Hints:
Elements: H1 19-27, E1 35-36, H2 39-49, E2 63-74, H3 84-107, H4 113-116, H5 121-126, H6 133-138, H7 142-153, E3 159-170, H8 190-193, H9 212-220, H10 222-228, H11 235-241, H12 247-259, H13 265-277, H14 281-293, H15 296-299, E4 300-301
Antiparallel strand pairs: 1-4, 2-3
Helix pairs in contact: 9-10, 10-14, 12-13, 12-14, 13-14
Amino acid sequence: xxxxxxxxxxxxxxxGVANDVREAAEQAFxxxxxxxxxxxxxxxxxxTAGHLFGIKHEPGDNxxxxxxxxRVPVKVERKNAATIAxxxxxxxxxxxxxxxxxxxxxxxxxxxxxxxxEIDFTAVLKMKDDEPLxxxxxxxxxxxxxxxxxxxxxxxxxxxxxxxVEAQIDDNPKYTSAMRMPSPAPPAHFLRVFGQPARDLLGDxxxxxxxxxxxxxxxxxxxxxxxxxxGKLEPMYKLLAGKTVDIDGAVELAYREIFTREPxxxxxxxxxxxxxxxxxxxxxxxxxxxxxxxxxEFRFIP
Length: 302
């Protein structure tokens, strides 16, 4: 209680000074140190403030056509097929390859990396354990088991070619918490860019240093872009495109959702000017949200 009630503990950040002056003030307990949110906390904060934990666009509002490179199997004629089993194995491999290519095209591949690595815990919990190996072996003779092993080890004669295909997707993103994702995330993911360790080595600690990749991720990343957009299914839309447009109320709501505070008079006036310069109030609010997400007040803990 004594520490929390002290003047040093209750000091705020120092702004508008050089970095060496700020660091000296923090070391002398004249100002509170600047501390950025952890990668997982920042990701969840963007998703929460941007209403991305649920669908915020109506179906069909975000139809997009994307191009992808997929591997398509090409059937190779064999003049002397050794056995019928080999022919059946080839057909099975071709069918599996086609089945794999189609979901990859529809899912979007790496187009939406943040959603692609989420774990569907509901589906995982419904999975049944594999049948014990002893029980499976008891149903097969040694000769049959050896034949299966030979078929699995035999190389197939399926050839693949790369083709550019177009797929139309309804880009209506929905994200989940970083706590429900595999850890560590892929190297190019938001979480890893903002310091989540790879966990390859015991001494692989979390990196808190800023980088250009982090700035570009916030400026141009898909998560920030989708969080800034205003969807028809979120409360903000009624204030900007309803029967009665309430710009002041929309700005106040944006500040409460992103900064958890009310805007000051000068901030309200500046926000209204930004919205007025855009083609529509919806576009203007998207610009304002993008600015707030990229501000120090959002990224750093007060």
